[in-house]
Amino acid sequence: MTTTTLVFLVLAVAIIAGLSFYAWRLTRQVNAMKQAQQDEEASGELHLRQHQEELVNDIRFIARAVIAGQCEITEGVMRTHYLLHGLDAEVWVREELNMIRSHFDATRDMPILQAYKELPRKEQFAIDSRRLKLEEKHKAAIEREFRWLNNYSFPQVTLLQ
């Protein structure tokens, strides 16, 4: 074997070894990136599951509070509307929540917080009277619907399962 052949052979082995090392490093980087992506997805799924569980717990808490008379019906309906749309908006349109939806539609435009405080006393009284009449009229049906909602399992929310 001549010296030139030996030099080429050593050079070829060095190039192949260098390329092999480079390919090995790239493979490790790709695997590390895949693992980081899987970890991030798992973390995101866990965070979403925890958020969904919090929403379900909040919905059930409000339902129990309305049933127990610890929360005004209108406030419970408004809060439930907001929470259900953050969790599973399809539940809001179910037949089982017909009266809650109807009450929401009847009270959604009533001013609250600062807008309510800025109204003259006479208008506040009129709004309160209208709201209380609606609450009294629909109390039994709304409480029945909140009992149903308290026991609902939210099967469409797959991460809860």
Short structural description:
The chain is an all-alpha fold. It is built from six helices and no strands.
Question: Helix and strand layout, with pairings?
Answer:
Blueprint: H1 3-67, H2 73-87, H3 89-92, H4 98-107, H5 113-117, H6 121-151
Helix pairs in contact: 1-2, 1-6, 2-4, 4-6
Would you mind describing this structure in some detail?
This protein is mainly α. The N and C termini lie far apart (about 70 Å). It has helices at about 5-65, 75-85, 90, 100-105, 115, 120-150. It is rod-shaped, with a radius of gyration of 31 Å.
For the structure shown, list the relevant keywords.
mainly alpha
Query: Whole-Å distance between the termini?
Result: 71 Å
Q: SSE string, helix = H, strand = E?
A: HHHHHH
Number of helices: 6
What share of residues are in beta strands? under 5%
